[in-house]
Write a structure and sequence with these properties.
With 1240 residues, the chain is α/β, with parallel strands linked by helices. It is 27% helix and 22% strand.
Length: 1240
């Protein structure tokens, strides 16, 4: 055994690891062979599975079967895709012998003996585990101890323990409270029944329930399974210990009536159990799985996963991943962890692969660094100061006057001159000086300007002077902390630049009154607040206003915090709802998540603010944060001005209900807010930062950095190309562009407290030129040869002049269809003289292939999408067209002078003429291929059109929308909106370009029939005769512009092309299976209210484009009962997975009852007529009647064949498909009979 395991470990080191979990009593190693694609590590999200054999040394069938299973998995890994998928998608641990000592004593031919059953200490190992009912303590055996430690070290999900002596699958509990043989039900009884039935039903005889009629004629098991204790009660069993002490669900398999059969019989045991072993292994992918993350995106370990009404919890692994086996149905699942707020979600578990369910838990404490610790406030001010404020005096005896404030800030600048710089901003009308104290430590050789800049502002409201006092204390705390070497403070001032402006409205302060909590005694007519117009209107000529505006125009601040009173919450933009700005929708900005994050950073570190329970003036806000407009809508506030005008994130902390609190309250206000302010400052070190350069490392000063779904860019330093942005935790798509360079998209995961480096080098933009047919063919062949793993070049057919209609597939695994992977096509040059589409598609091909592996988003798109590009449909016509001819029609038609654009089969007319060869090739390709979305390119104007083009009244223009008009409008608008001018809807084409060319198009899109109704378009054909949705893009007024304009066409369309590729992933997708998980080809998917049905492809997979919303979806197939589901497509832009499992109709010989009766009656009538006829013609001839059309079914043989289909593991073709909750994945070139395991 050891030699065989070693042989496979050495022969297949890339997928195996041989290790020992300990030794037996006699010193034999307890060997395990791990089989997976990355042996030796636990891959987050990948389940752990184990098989254990030979626990009883004389029960050897399991030992031998597991050795054969090792051989099967290893030898077939590189040859059978389904085996590869099985190995790649799980970490499989196989222990052939748990009791090698006992095995040495066992004797071949022993049917029911006990020689070798126990270990060397004569202990039955399956009675040696700690038991839930029998609390007697004993010293466990070395083998038992090793197993227990093994199970604690690896997050096993599923297991089977292989025994012998009967033929049954046994599930927990093995023991009962009384020790008697009664049904001892565990909380997951239904799960265990499902697991054991999976094994039993895949076995040719186990499921029959008569295991050993020759030896035990009265012993039966329904369906070949049994509850352990119902069979006979066993205390100290291994399967119960697995279930009660780990995440692992284990069953016990009795593999035959002979414990130690003769060697000649092993082959039959293998044949009986091979499929069952594989089938049971697949069960590890059932139920629900996912990750539990913190708000920063870090996986949380030891989180309890609880399923409502099931009294059995599991915990997450070290990376936050978990797997919870469940039966199909609706389940309520809760994730909880001390120090975090629990999260409960409802999930629907299907009969297919595990449903993904992720949790994000919000922390309520348990910080990691002293800086973030919750500081107690029940200490005396002096004691508090000794512990948390470096022993500095905590005596607030009075509010600082303006003179005292100015003098003190000047003293700090002198005393701590190594980290401070005092900057005079302006003089007030009363000649008070407003200062900005800049605190930073230049430890980077003069590069302090590259640090993020953060501002703290106090005294913006003169009658709310508490901010002045608190900011003077924070200056003292930071400066003193740095001088004392506090590592947190040193790190803070070394990595950010802090601007502190303690007082702004100094003149107004002299007019305010102490303890005026409501501000009733303050005349605010001369106030400087709420005079910051966002439309460049001057609302005040006060020098304070001008100075603030100039400061924030000249310095790019990342975040700003104003300390105010009149509440106990944090306020963030918008203070006044607006809709006219692309940055704002009502009260929410496009940076709402980051503003909320900054606000929560403050409130959560405040002892009471985050509770939202304290009312100020009758207001309370959840978590202690609010949009300003949801408190008191106010125009022209400073924080709205900074957001809209300066791209700066500002929040306002209201730290006292009283506007001008008593002096005696200042100490507690300082204590409760110090930590929050430091927390806010620390968040400036979270987000993304990097530099944009060319490939030689030279900064690109005109670079632009933008977040997807954000309308404005991140500031890039024009001198260095450096950029920085504070972001809340999460995954971001960052687009980097520069004039004359190829754009790049990077995916950046932002974690709490971490600044993600994002340095990008952009390659220069390629100069585009026109391609003749031969040059196009040469380029396509070059790309196919240069990117062999990503491309598949093929031809649809030939044109009239025998030119190939080339198609280039670009995708990971190009040339091999992956079920569940959506397919999009791009088609150009339908009119031979409209050449921009051809050149755009050639440029797109080069861009996609060059960017794969460099551009994160393109890489992700090509990993999950199959892209088919047909640059030229009309190569014959293009040979006749001439560059620079914007309006000429030369080359528009094919060689038969037929307009291919209107040559397609149409439901609006019954054509008698035959299709052109180009059209026939396209129609065949469209109908036979699993396309989901398509874009065709034309020229002559600037617009995107969508079906229908035709109508029942050809030649009469008028809108003729499809039932999917909402989807088509969305797709068309997606393309138009990403184009710099198309969405404006005014192509402004010269009048001589062609008919309708000067028309305006609302939002840059139009229904084809409304524009110019004509039958026979390709986009109509796609919609009516295939699963595909097609839109048509008109790229510009000039049909054949000069080559020098090509690069601008590419720049204008590149973002639209990528955006439309993304939209192939909207709506619903899934698989339609029968009860054996076999995909049903040709099943129909219908959505209520839409007359277009889509049909499943060879592997039962489908895709249906839909917009967010609620739908009723029906799946049906001939001979099966239809299934109806109420679904909700999410509004997050992600596809919803909807699988269907159809059950056969009540059938007689495979036919519906009504059809069977009709056929039978017809058959009988025909039989009688034929009998009479033959009797009359051949009266004396003896007839030998034979039934035709039916035969007696061998039920047992048929049953086995149905399950033999599962051997192909059709729904486990690729790791990516499996782990992404994918679908059955068949190679189209292989039939079930082609896929065979090696013989043993």
């Amino acid at each position: 055994m050891k030699a065989v395991m070693t042989k496979y470990a050495e022969k297949y080191p890339d997928i195996t690891r041989l290790y020992s979990i300990g030794e037996s009593v006699e010193g034999r190693e307890l060997l395990v062979l791990e089989i997976t694609d990355n042996p030796g590590i636990h891959e987050p999200g990948e389940p752990e599975f184990k098989y254990v054999g030979n626990m009883h040394g004389n029960e050897v069938v399991g030992r031998e079967l597991l050795i054969l299973l090792i051989e099967l998995l290893c030898e077939n890994y590189h040859h059978v895709p389904e085996v590869k998928a099985l190995v790649d998608s799980a970490r499989i641990h196989i222990m052939p012998s748990m009791n090698p000592d006992g095995h040495e004593k066992a004797i071949e031919g022993d049917r029911e003996g006990v020689m070798g059953r126990a270990n060397a200490n004569t202990v039955d190992l399956n009675r040696d585990f700690p038991d839930q009912f029998d609390k007697k303590k004993h010293t466990v055996q070395p083998e038992t101890k090793a197993i227990m430690q093994w199970l604690k070290s690896i997050p096993f999900v599923l297991s089977a323990n292989l025994h012998g002596g009967s033929l049954v699958a046994n599930y927990p509990y093995d023991d009962s409270p009384t020790g008697k043989s009664i049904y001892s039900k565990c909380p997951d009884d239904d799960v265990f029944i499902q697991l054991t039935e999976a094994y039993s039903e895949a076995h040719p005889t186990m499921h029959l329930g008569h295991p050993c009629p020759k030896y035990y004629p009265s012993e039966t098991f329904d369906d070949g399974i049994t509850n352990g204790a119902a069979w006979y009660s066993v205390a100290g069993g291994m399967q119960d210990w697995n279930y009660l002490n780990t995440n692992c669900f284990e069953i016990t398999l009795e593999l035959g009536c002979f414990k130690y059969p003769y060697q000649k019989d092993l082959e039959s045991y293998w044949e009986d159990n091979e499929l069952s072993l594989i089938t049971f292994l697949q069960q590890v992918h059932k139920g629900v799985k996912g990750f539990v993350l913190s708000e920063s995106g870090v996986g949380l370990s030891n989180v309890t996963i609880h399923v409502y009404s099931i009294d059995h919890d599991i915990i997450t692994a070290k990376d936050g991943d978990y797997w919870r086996l469940l039966v199909p149905g609706v389940h309520k699942v809760t994730a909880s962890l001390d120090g975090y707020i629990s999260d409960t979600q409802t999930v629907t578990v299907s009969e297919g692969l595990a449903t993904h369910l992720n949790f994000t838990l919000r922390s309520v404490g348990s910080p990691e660094k002293p800086l973030k610790e919750q500081i107690p406030i029940n200490l005396s001010p002096d004691d508090w100061g000794t512990i948390y404020d470096y022993g500095l005096p905590q005596n607030f005896t009075t509010y600082l006057s303006n003179q005292d404030l100015i003098a003190q800030i000047a003293d700090y600048a002198i005393k701590y001159s190594n980290i401070t710089q005092l900057v005079e901003l302006t003089k007030t009308p009363k000649q008070n000086t407003i200062y900005d104290l800049v605190i930073t430590y230049d430890n980077d050789h003069g590069k302090a300007f590259e640090k993020p800049e953060v501002a703290l502002i106090g005294g913006l409201h003169a009658e709310q002077p508490v901010g002045r006092e608190i900011l003077m204390r924070i200056i003292r705390h930071i400066c003193e902390g740095f001088s004392r070497g506090d590592e947190h403070i040193v790190d803070l001032v070394s990595t950010i630049t802090i601007h502190i402006i303690p007082g702004v409205d100094l003149d107004g302060f002299d007019e305010a009154q102490l303890e005026d909590c409501d501000g009733n005694h303050y005349d605010n007519t001369s106030s400087i607040v709420n005079v910051f117009s966002t439309d460049n209107t001057e609302l005040s000529d006060r020098p304070e206003i001008k100075a603030l505006k100039e400061l924030f125009e000249n310095v790019k601040f990342e975040s700003v915090l104003s300390i105010e009173a009149d509440g106990l919450w944090v306020r963030y933009p918008m203070d006044y709802a607006r809709d006219e700005s692309p940055l704002v929708n009502g009260v929410k900005t496009e940076d709402d998540s980051t503003l909320q994050f900054l606000s929560l950073a403050y409130s959560m570190k405040h002892p009471s603010m985050h509770t939202g329970s304290e009312s100020c003036h009758g207001y309370q806000f959840t978590d202690g944060i609010t949009h300003g407009a949801e408190w008191i809508p106010t125009k022209n506030t400073f924080q709205d001005y900074l957001y809209l005008q300066e791209k700066t994130l500002m929040i306002t902390a209201h730290i006292s209900c009283c506007k001008y609190p008593a002096v005696i309250d200042l100490a507690s206000i300082w204590q409760t807010n110090m930590q929050s302010i430091l927390q806010f400052l620390g968040k400036a070190k979270q987000g993304i930062s990097g530099a944009v350069t060319d490939v030689k490392g030279k900064p690109l000063i005109d670079a632009e950095v933008t977040l997807i779904e954000h309308s404005r860019s991140i500031y890039v330093n024009p001198d260095t190309g450096i950029f920085y942005a504070i972001l809340s935790p999460g995954l971001y798509r960052v687009v980097i562009t520069a004039p004359g360079y190829t754009p790049m998209t990077k995916l950046s995961q932002v974690y709490e407290g971490k600044l993600q480096a994002l340095n990008v080098s952009l390659p220069p933009e390629k100069e585009l030129t026109y391609h003749s047919y031969d040059e196009m063919e040469t380029l396509l062949r070059h790309l196919d040869e240069a990117y062999t793993n990503m491309t598949h070049l093929y031809t649809l057919g030939q044109s009239l002049e025998y030119r190939q209609l080339w198609a280039l597939e670009i995708s990971q695994n190009a040339g091999k269809r992956v079920p569940g992977k959506p397919t999009i096509k791009f088609i150009g040059n339908i009119h031979g003289n409209e050449v921009i589409g051809r050149e755009l598609l050639l440029a797109l091909s080069e861009y996609l292939l060059y960017s794969y592996g460099k551009d994160d988003w393109i890489t992700q798109l090509l990993d999950s999408t199959s892209v088919h590009i047909v640059p030229s449909v009309n190569p014959d016509g293009s040979m006749k067209a001439e560059e620079g001819k914007c309006t000429a029609d030369d080359g528009s038609l094919n060689s038969h002078q037929v307009d291919l654009a209107w040559d397609f089969t149409s439901k609006f007319v019954n054509r008698t003429t035959s299709r052109q060869p180009e059209t026939e090739a396209l129609e065949k390709w469209i109908v036979e291929s699993p396309f989901v979305l398509s874009v065709a390119f034309h020229g002559g104007t600037l617009v995107t059109s969508y079906p229908y083009d035709g109508s029942s009244h050809p030649g009469t223009s008028g809108e003729n929308p499809t039932k999917d008009d909402d989807v088509f409008r969305f797709l068309a608008q997606t393309y138009a909106n990403k184009h710099p001018t198309m969405h404006l809807g005014n192509p402004a084409c010269p009048d001589d370009v062609g008919k309708n060319s000067s028309v305006e198009f609302s939002d840059g899109i139009i229904n084809g029939a409304e524009w110019k109704s004509q039958i026979g378009s390709m986009q109509d054909f796609n919609y009516d005769f295939s699963n595909c949705f097609e839109i048509t893009v008109y790229t510009g007024c000039c049909k054949y512009p000069y080559a020098k304009e090509l690069n601008q066409f590419w720049r204008d369309n590149a973002a639209s092309l990528i955006a439309i590729m993304e939209k192939v992933h909207i709506g619903i997708r899934g698989i339609v299976c029968d009860k054996y998980n076999h995909g049903l080809k040709g099943a129909m998917i219908r959505v209520e209210g839409y007359n277009k049905a889509v049909y499943t492809y060879n592997d039962g997979d489908y895709w249906r484009l839909l917009l967010p919303g609620k739908y009723t979806v029906t799946a049906s197939a001939p001979g099966y009962t239809e299934e109806v589901k109420e679904i909700k497509v999410p509004d997050n832009g992600k596809v919803l997975i909807v699988d269907f499992y159809l059950t056969p109709e009540n059938a007689i010989f495979g036919l519906p009852p009504a059809m069977f009766i009709i056929i039978t009656a017809t058959g009988i009538a025909l039989f009688i007529l034929m009998f009479i006829f033959l009797y009359r013609v051949c009266k004396y001839r003896k007839m030998d009647r034979k039934k035709h059309g039916f035969y007696r079914l061998d039920g047992e043989k048929m049953y086995q064949e149905e399950y033999a289909d599962r051997l192909a593991l059709r729904d486990y073709h690729s790791k990516q498909t499996l782990l992404s909750n994918g679908y059955k994945d068949l190679s189209e070139s292989e039939s079930e009979d082609d896929i065979m395991f090696k013989k043993y």
